[in-house]
Design brief:
- It contains ten helices and nine strands.
- With 281 residues, it is of the alpha+beta class.
- The protein has two domains: 171 residues, Jelly Rolls (Sandwich), CATH 2.60.120.280; 98 residues, Homeodomain-like (Arc Repressor Mutant, subunit A).
- A six-stranded antiparallel β-sheet has the order 1-2-8-3-6-9. Strands 5-4-7 form a three-stranded antiparallel β-sheet, with no helix packed on it.
- Strand 1 and strand 2 form a beta hairpin.
- Helix 3 packs antiparallel against helix 4 and helix 8 packs across helix 9.
- The chain is globular.
- This is AraC family transcriptional regulator.
- It comes from Paenibacillus lutimineralis.
- One of its GO terms (molecular function) is DNA-binding transcription factor activity.
- It holds the Pfam family HTH_18.
Length: 281
């Protein structure tokens, strides 16, 4: 099982098509875990600890060996509670990882790609164990620990198996329940994501949803863990990152994503990603 393998283990593929780490924080500090997103896909296996995971306003309770799946459009953050050691195994895949394995329109990530943001992100521990996913994660780390070109090829084959299995499980098994919270917030989240390039002031949102600004701010923060301005900024940075990968300059991406000034975009981008906008291309 995964917990019997090497802990605090990190691996980056030679071609940067995937990254894997298995980490245990003995004394987790909740302040260390910040909202983030991936350029591709993240498959997160929770092993031990106590807390929840928030994805686009949906809250998922963590249980040992449950798996969470996020695509590149989903802002997420782990919420650790208590002082138990926090352990997880995380597989991050570049958006183009599956390209060499796809044929005849088959897309092993389709169930992760084409669903509503923050919905059906979790597979239960029972499903993970009974399906053999836990065993595949163990085999993946076992291969990666060899740190050789040959074993990296083996690891990629295992990752394809993991992706295929998750795709099937997400379609045919009922995912673990998630708490979407206030329905009004779900509508606001959907509206924001569809209108990022437009002016999204608090006044405008309150008017759009026939709600007071105070109550909107209150239920939004309570449900998502972010202020409205934080969420809008995070999602605009995510969109700008995507545009830069498509060939936009940093300045073009800045304004196309809805920012009104390059300076504020630059500071926010660097704070969230740890990179300068130009290095995100």
């Amino acid at each position: 099982m995964v917990e019997h393998r090497m802990v605090n283990f990190h691996y980056s593929a030679e071609d940067e098509s995937f990254w894997y780490h298995h980490v245990r924080d003995k004394h987790p500090n909740p302040l260390h875990y910040k909202p983030h997103y991936e350029k591709g896909y993240e498959i997160f296996m929770f092993i031990s600890g106590s807390g929840s995971f928030t994805i686009e306003g949906s809250k998922y309770e963590l249980e040992p060996y449950s798996i969470l799946m996020m695509n590149s459009n989903e802002l997420h953050v782990v919420n650790i509670s208590g002082d138990q050691p926090y352990e997880r195994a995380v597989l991050t895949l570049d958006g183009n990882f599956m390209a060499p394995f796809m044929s005849s329109g088959v897309d092993l990530f389709r169930t992760i790609k084409y669903r509503r943001l923050g919905q059906d992100n979790q597979l239960s521990a029972k499903t993970v164990k009974e399906s053999g996913l836990l065993e595949l994660f163990n085999k993946l780390q076992q291969a990666l620990e060899q740190r050789s070109a040959e074993h990296e090829i083996v690891a990629k084959c295992i990752i394809v198996q993991i992706a295929s299995m998750i795709n099937d499980l997400a379609r045919y098994y009922s995912p673990s329940s998630n708490k979407r919270g206030e329905p009004k917030v779900a509508a606001v989240l959907e509206y924001i994501n569809k209108h990022l390039e437009e002016s999204l002031t608090l006044d405008h949102l309150a008017e759009q949803f026939y709600i007071t600004k105070y109550y909107l701010c209150h239920i939004f923060k309570e449900t998502t863990g972010y202020t409205i301005n934080q969420y809008i900024t995070y999602k605009r940075i995510l969109k700008a990152d995507e545009l830069m990968r498509q060939g936009f300059t940093a300045t073009q991406a800045c304004f196309a994503a809805g920012f009104t000034g390059y300076s504020s975009f630059y500071k926010s981008y660097r704070k969230l990603t740890g990179r300068t906008p130009r290095s995100g291309r």
